[in-house]
Automatic annotation (TrEMBL):
Main enzyme class: hydrolase
Active site location: D85
Protein residues bound to Mg(2+): D56, D85
Pfam assignment, any one: Ham1p_like
E.C. code: 3.6.1.66
Stated name of the protein: dITP/XTP pyrophosphatase
Domain of life: Bacteria
HAMAP family attached to this UniProt entry: Non_canon_purine_NTPase
Family as reported in the entry's similarity comment: Belongs to the HAM1 NTPase family.
GO cellular component, as recorded: cytosol
Catalytic reactions of this protein: XTP + H2O = XMP + diphosphate + H(+); ITP + H2O = IMP + diphosphate + H(+); dITP + H2O = dIMP + diphosphate + H(+)
Cofactor note: Binds 1 Mg(2+) ion per subunit.
Amino acid sequence: MRSDPGHRQRKLVAIMMDLVLGTHNAKKLVELRMMLPSQHITLTSLAEIPAAIDVDETGQTFAENAAIKATQQALHLKRWVLAEDSGLSVDALDGQPGVYSARYAGTHGDDEANNEKLLRELADTPTDRRGAQFNCHLCLSDPEGNVRLQASGICRGRIAFSRSGIAGFGYDPLFIIPEYHRTFGELDLAVKRAISHRSRGLRQLIPSLVSIAQQT
């Protein structure tokens, strides 16, 4: 019996999942697109969806904020939404800036000001006390606003005394990966994709995401 190319194409389309990434951050979109299996999942950012809403991040933890962003956006759009909340926790600052990482200096998304404030706060802190970690919590919501999957990832490092490198975003130019003796701002994206907090969290979700994609 001859195979039916059209049937194979219809089967392929049937297992594709149209997933919304709950962020306007273009660099996060690129990072996650590189890690997700494109044969099963298409990823769209909020910047590409005019009907998307702004969700207030009122949670006290990364997990709470990720769930809020995923479920509220999913309910509004009636689509599957993968949201993440991530940030930097500095040991010498008792875990700050934490969930306030993006607005540490007052204005949301002002990387320059956030980095400047962090350097000021740590100005008198010696190298052995500049330990820190990037945190990420991911949450998948179905179109009815039900949390279907969650995962977390961390990446340990330390804070430099000055910026180095222009790659990445946020605190990347200040975050040194001890094994490489370089900041995320200096490392190739492929390396960051392998070791970052975001990639470590996402890798936990991928098998279940593919399974859900095959069922939708």
